[in-house]
Design goal:
The chain is mainly beta. The radius of gyration is 17 Å and the shape is globular. 8% of the residues lie in helices and 37% in strands. It has one helix and 14 strands, in the order H-E-E-E-E-E-E-E-E-E-E-E-E-E-E. It has one domain: Immunoglobulin-like, CATH 2.60.40.3500. The strands form four sheets. Strands 2-13-14-6-5 form a five-stranded antiparallel β-sheet, with helices on one face. The chain has a five-stranded antiparallel β-sheet with strand order 3-7-10-12-11, with no helix packed on it. It has a two-stranded antiparallel sheet with strand order 1-4.
C-alpha cells in the first residue's frame, strides 16, 4: 500500500463502517430558509499546516469503486487551544455552490501498529474543502438560540466549518446521509450534536471523556484531509478529526 493509501485507509474504513451500521435519517438544516449566499471567496489568512510524514494507518481497502486522489496531515497532533498553534485550517474556493456536508463517519482505533490510540470523526463534503476551526470549550451553545446543548462527557471539542452547510440550497432538507446516532460511546468521544447550520456556518460539538478530577488534560487532536473520487465520478472531500485516546493519569 503506497503512502497516500495508507493515510486514507482509516478514513475510508470509518466511512464504510458508518454507511453499513449508522442509525437515523438525514438531519434537516437550521429552521427557516437560509439567506442566499453571494459569489465570494472564502477568506484565507494562513496557509494550512504542511503535510508531515504519516504514521501507520490501519490496513484497509477503500470503499469499492472509490479512488483516493490525495491525502495529507492538515494538523499534526497538538492541543488545539494553544495560541501558538491554534486548531485552524484555511482553504480558498469560489462560492456558490457552498460545500455541503454529505456524510459523517465515526471510528475507534485502539491499537493501530506504531500509533497512539485515537477516536475519529470524519466529515465528508462535496464541491471543496471548507475552512474550519476546532477547539475545546466548556459547553456547546446553539449558534442561533444561544442555549446550551447537552452532551455526554466532561468537555466539548467544537468544530466550525466556514462557507459550508448541511442542507440543500433552498433549505428544504438536510444533506447528511444516515448520520451516526448521537451517543457514540467511544473511549474518548462520548457523543456529538449539531450546534448550527445557518448563513454558511456549520458547527458541531463532540462530547469528550476524561477522568474525573482533571480540569484541563490538554488532549491532542490531529486532522487528516483526503480527496477521493466515487465510482460515479463525484469528488468528495473528507476532514477526519482524530482525538487522542491514550490513557490519562
Amino acid at each position: 500500500m503506497n503512502t497516500t493509501r495508507k493515510m486514507a485507509a482509516g478514513v475510508l474504513a470509518a466511512l464504510a463502517l458508518t454507511a453499513a451500521s449508522a442509525c437515523g435519517t438525514s438531519r434537516p438544516g437550521a429552521s427557516g430558509t437560509p439567506t442566499p449566499q453571494p459569489t465570494i471567496t472564502a477568506p484565507s489568512t494562513a496557509t494550512p499546516t504542511p503535510a508531515q510524514s504519516p504514521t501507520t494507518e490501519p490496513s484497509a481497502s477503500p470503499t469499492r469503486g472509490t479512488t483516493v486522489i490525495s491525502a495529507r496531515v492538515a494538523y499534526q497532533w497538538h492541543w488545539p487551544n494553544d495560541s501558538s498553534r491554534p486548531g485552524a485550517v484555511s482553504h480558498t474556493y469560489p462560492v456558490p455552490p457552498v460545500p455541503e456536508l454529505v456524510r459523517i463517519g465515526v471510528g475507534d482505533h485502539p491499537s493501530d501498529p506504531g500509533e497512539r490510540p485515537y477516536n475519529r470523526m470524519s466529515f465528508t463534503f462535496n464541491t471543496a474543502f471548507p475552512s474550519y476551526q476546532f477547539r475545546y470549550v466548556d459547553q456547546l451553545v446553539g449558534d442561533a438560540s444561544g442555549q446550551p446543548i447537552p452532551l455526554e462527557g466532561r468537555g466539548v471539542l467544537m468544530i466550525s466549518f466556514r462557507e459550508a452547510q448541511a442542507h440543500t440550497p433552498d433549505g428544504t432538507k438536510g444533506t447528511v446521509v444516515s448520520p451516526p446516532a448521537a451517543h457514540l460511546g467511544l473511549s474518548r468521544m462520548a457523543s456529538y450534536a449539531i450546534a448550527g447550520d445557518y448563513e454558511a456556518v456549520l458547527t458541531y460539538g463532540i462530547g469528550i471523556n476524561w477522568p474525573a478530577g482533571q480540569s484541563n488534560p490538554q488532549i491532542a487532536v490531529r486532522v487528516y484531509e483526503v480527496t477521493m473520487q466515487t465510482a460515479q465520478g463525484q469528488r468528495r472531500y473528507v476532514v477526519a478529526i482524530d482525538v487522542d485516546a491514550s490513557p490519562l493519569g
